[in-house]
Amino acid sequence: MSAQLGRRALLQGALVLAFSLGVEEAATQGKGGAKGNKGGKEGEGGKGGKAGGKGGLPGDLARNPQLDAWLRIGADGKVTLQVGKVELGQGALTALGQICADELDVDLARLTIVSGDTRVCPNEGTTTGSQSMSEGGTAVRHAAAEVRALLLSMASAQLKVPAERLTVNDGTVAERGARAGRVGGAGGAGGAGGAGTGAVTYWSLVGGKALNREAQGGVALKAVEARRYIGKAVPRRDLPAKITGEEIFVQDLRPASFVHGRVVRAPSYGATLVEADEAGVARMPGVLKVVRDGDFLGVIAGKEWQAVKAAVALRHSARWRETAALPVDPYAWLVAQPAEEVVIQEVARGGGEAPVRTVEATYRRPYQMHASIGPSCAVAAWDGAALTVHTHSQSVFATAQAIARMLGLAADKVRAVHMNGSGCYGHNGADDAAADAALLARALPGRAVRVQWSREDEHAQEPYGSAMVMKARAGVDANGDVLDWSYDLWSTTHNTRPGGHPGNLLPGRSLAKPFAQPAPRASRPPNFSADRNAIPLYAFPGQKVTTHFVSAMPLRVSAHRSLGAYANVFALESFVDELAHAAKVDPVAFRLRQMRDARATAVIEAAAERFGWGKAREGREAGHGRGIGFARYKNVGSYCAVCLEVVVDPGSLAVKVTRAVVAVEAGEVVNPDGLANQIEGGVIQALSWSLKEAVKHDGARIVSRDWSSYPILTFSEVPPVEVAILDKPGQPFLGAGEAAQGPTAAALANAVFEACGLRARELPLTPARLGALRQEAGPVK
Amino acid sequence: MAFTLNVNGKPQVVEAEEDTPLLYVLRDELGLNGAKYGCGVGQCGACTVLSDGVPLRSCFVPAASLTARKITTLEGLRGADGKLHALQQAFLAEQAGQCGYCIPGMIMAAAALLGVKARPSEAEIRAALDANLCRCGSHNRIVRAIQRAAQEMGT
Ligand code: FES
Ligand code: FES
User: Fold this and answer.
1) Shortest alpha-carbon distance between residue A607 and chain B (Å)
2) Per-residue pLDDT averaged across A121-125, rounded?
3) Measured between CA atoms, how close is B150 to chain A, in angstroms?
4) What's the CA gap between A520 and A499, in Å, rounded?
5) Given an 8 Å threshold on Cβ–Cβ distance, is B92 in contact with A235?
6) Looking at CA atoms only, how far is residue A162 from chain B in angstroms?
7) Locate the 2Fe-2S ferredoxin-type domain: which residues (chain B) (predicted)?
8) How many Å apart are CA A609 and CA A590, to the nearest integer?
9) Which residues on B lie below 8 Å from A251 (Cβ)?
10) Which residues of A4-35 are buried (b: 16+ CB within 10 A; e: fewer)?
11) Which of A31, A728, B39, B48 allows an S-S link to A455, with CB 3.0 to 4.6 Å?
12) Which is it for the CA torsion A494, A497, A502, A508, positive or negative?
């Protein structure tokens, strides 16, 4: 009892100390770019931005304050970190492990990470929006620091040494300077005896029990110089298994007695199934069951190839009533639709000079797809009472809930467990495949059913990134600088993620008793959605930004890497470039002179310098051009500037990107190589989107159904990508998985303009598009 | 039908319908995860294995037609002692990959290339892998990894 009391007293002492440190750190963080930093906090929390301090626990800790939800310390010395965020190939778990190991003071090798299991992991919502570090990382950091503080106070009571005099080495606590610490504690034998100079391990202190404690907030974090892992290029935890073929992808999961399911999809949106030869297919070799529920049609077979063949036969036998009428010109369609108009930014200039000129331009972004290399897959098993589904969903919690509602089950009867999938870059077929597997598994109790989509279905059925129209208008002064900026955008929704609604699951909408898809809603700050990055970061005196949110969605749409930011930054940064050229000012100088955010300026300058922007234009050959694009992702996330060099073939107008240089500032960097990898990949993917990609349809059916009808960038077309990271130790983590998308698109269009004088305002920049522009313009140069 | 395949140096008797593509036999009958399903029609390279040292897209070639071939999968690159192949080591050293789904196919295509050309130029590597698709944008790291492996294998 007295030990208990002692522990509490000591702990309170530690917390008082910690809290004051916390305040001090918050004050330090407030320095430098006050505006930017405040934004960072908002972005992090997304809910008022109170980091630190009681009652406002940071990151995802706020909704999961139980420390046991995050960390388990086994009596055997194993430490398990449990997180709701999941690995998407972005290196999230590696970075979270680094944070945890540093703040808890254990070796990385000691750490096991359990991720995305709805039964055991804290509910951190979806793994989206570059928030794995800002939300998840911040939570892990504070949770681990709190557990460390708790364990230190326990060790202090046991060793009878004040907590301030204790140090920790891989979970072994000893008095500072007492070199024997490691030896004494390593055995895990308790080490509690001794005369205060001994050592004790975390695992003996905890004794395999739960910590049973809620996070208090405001605990001291590891000093920058004391960190072993944060800021280092620690290798990815998941890569060894991936390069050796171990069972790490959900596609590789083969539980005992599993069987194979395939689903036959409608040929066009909203088609209803008239008939199919269910009886005939049921007699095919290996077929265990044909499942039909309304327009949902699937088959289960013993072997995968049998399932594939049965699904093909089923599809050939199916007759559908088709009704889809897809807009032939999505841009004309968008602006003609009834729309919810939301003014998201309005700053009146309040007098002053009148603009000498007003310029206007309209930009367009087509429907584009995620196009994962591995089609969506899930494995589900139904035991008659509960369902378990292994999935590569980004939203295990909400998807499990949606599946439970689809099946009419209590929420706790569906457990979703995340496993790696092919990179998704947003909401692809992952959740639908999980729902497919759930429906088929329920029809065959006791067997695990594995469903993998076909390539054709992955292309044709996934929700796309919405087409968008962006209209920019600027009144400029005699120098060409912007006085009044106005910007309008038209878009359908960028979010139809499951969110607990079976109507957001493709099969949920096809059942005999269908679930209606919830009406999409316009988004809100600070994350925004269609209007992400629609507000300029430049210090334009007058600003008006209006979102025209179209709730109809003739093509299936949802979250696609960076949401509207890709199109908005393309438009905004193309338009700024047009203004610079009109003002006869260097595009970099033009940007800098209208930027008041010091962190933004530093990033633009760093990119330009690394790229060698300053070199005279005359030095370059004909057909060569350079372009820059910049954005602070979401206006509260990472800063990213991209410089590209292109060569445009004067005859064919084919664009070749010859090199890319990127500068990025993502606050404090957890893993520089992980960050560089994300940025490199982001640039290459955005180049693919911007050079080649647009979803095609014939007015009724999607015709982009494979890699030849929807080609992506290949090795011979990929330029070298150089990434310069501006690290800010001590600043909040900003996360950067999506930061490069928009700037890359703009840099490309700007470089193409410099190379050949053609201003492409519609993506992608295909030779055909440039050819049409050349024809419009007549002979150039 | 039952037939025998030579996979990673071992004869394997498998039971599958005669038109079953090699990919499904490798994955489901032999439990080898290296080859992945990506498109099923030879367009992406995720399913690449070696057939007598030549890259083969296992997703659409019937396994039963390959009984006279020596098939090598990602798993077969490792030494008997479990040591990673130089390519696997190089992919780790370069941290080449994000989601990693395309990587086994990349490694197999690279192994085939290095089998015929010990020191390929960067352009040759890009040309050889041009029909192996990666959506994550890991291309440059993959090229660097192959260059590193070539160097290490040559010394
Ligand atoms: S899966 Fe074989 S080439 Fe795509
Ligand atoms: S690493 Fe993800 S597809 Fe290549």
Assistant:
1) 20
2) 91
3) 17
4) 11
5) yes
6) 43
7) 1-77
8) 15
9) 36-37, 101
10) eebbeebbeebbeebbeebeebeeebeeebee
11) B39
12) positive
Token match 């700053």: residue?
A347
Ligand nearest to the CA of B95: 2
Q: Which residue has the higher pLDDT, A454 or A32?
A: A454
- Listed residue (A168, A170, A176) closest to A152, CA to CA: A168
Domain ranges of chain B: 2-76, 86-154
Give the amino acid at A443: A
pLDDT at B71 over 60: yes
User: How large a percentage of chain A has pLDDT more than 70?
Assistant: 89
Distance of alpha carbon A301 from alpha carbon A260, whole angstroms: 5
Confidence of residue A779 (pLDDT cuts 50, 70, 90): low
- CATH placement of domain A3-239: 3.30.365.10
DSSP labels, A155-198: HHHHHTS-GGGEEEETTEEEETT-TTHHHHHHT-S----SSSS-
Other beta carbons within 10 Å of A343: 10
CA of A374 to the centre of ligand 2 (A): 9
Q: How confident is the model at residue A621 (pLDDT cuts 50, 70, 90)?
A: confident
Sign of the CA dihedral running A7, A12, A14, A15: positive
Rounded CA-CA distance A667/A216 in Å is: 25
Residue-level pLDDT at A179: 56
Q: Kindly report the number of other CB atoms within 10 A of residue A628's CB atom.
A: 27
User: What pLDDT, on the 0 to 100 scale, is given for residue A451?
Assistant: 98
For residue B62, give the DSSP letter: B
What ipTM does this complex have?
Answer: 0.98
Region of residue A634 (left: phi > 0; alpha: psi -120 to 50; beta: else): left
Question: What residue ranges do the domains of chain A occupy?
Answer: 3-239, 250-322+374-461, 468-494+529-777
DSSP SS3 for A738:
coil
Query: A250-322+374-461 maps to which CATH number?
Result: 3.30.365.10
CA neighbours within 13 Å on the CB side: how many for B85?
22
**Contact status, residue A440 vs residue A298, Cβ threshold 8 Å:** yes
**Residue A188 scores a pLDDT above 50:** no
Write the class of the CATH domain B2-76: alpha beta
- At A523, the pLDDT band (50, 70, 90 cuts) reads confident
Output the average pLDDT for chain A: 90
What is the average pLDDT across A236-254? 97
Instruction: Look at the block and give the residue holding tokens 């890259």.
Output: B55
What is the C-alpha to C-alpha distance for residues A451 and A264, in angstroms, rounded to an integer? Answer: 11
For residue B10, pLDDT beyond 70: yes
Q: Specify whether the CB–CB gap between A182 and A172 falls below 8 A.
A: yes
Taking all residues of chain B, what is their mean pLDDT, rounded to a whole number?
Answer: 97
Instruction: Round to whole Å and give the CA distance between A140 and A147.
Output: 10
Mutate to test the interface with A, among B60, B126, B139, B148 (most CBs of A within 10 A): B139
CATH number, domain A468-494+529-777, options 3.30.365.10, 2.60.40.730, 3.90.226.10, 1.10.1740.10: 3.30.365.10
**pLDDT-wise least confident of A27-41, A263-277, A390-404:** A27-41
What CATH number does the domain located at B86-154 have? 1.10.150.120
Residues whose CB is less than 8 angstroms from the CB of residue A618 and which lie 6 or more positions away in sequence, other chains included:
none
- Residue A53 falls in which region: left (phi positive, over 0), alpha (psi -120 to 50) or beta: left
**Band of the pLDDT at A351, cuts 50, 70, 90?**
confident
Q: A197 pLDDT band (50/70/90 cuts)?
A: low
How many Cβ atoms are within 10 Å of A517's Cβ, its own excluded? Answer: 17
Q: Do B31 and A254 make contact, defined as CB atoms within 8 angstroms?
A: yes
What pLDDT score does A11 carry? 34
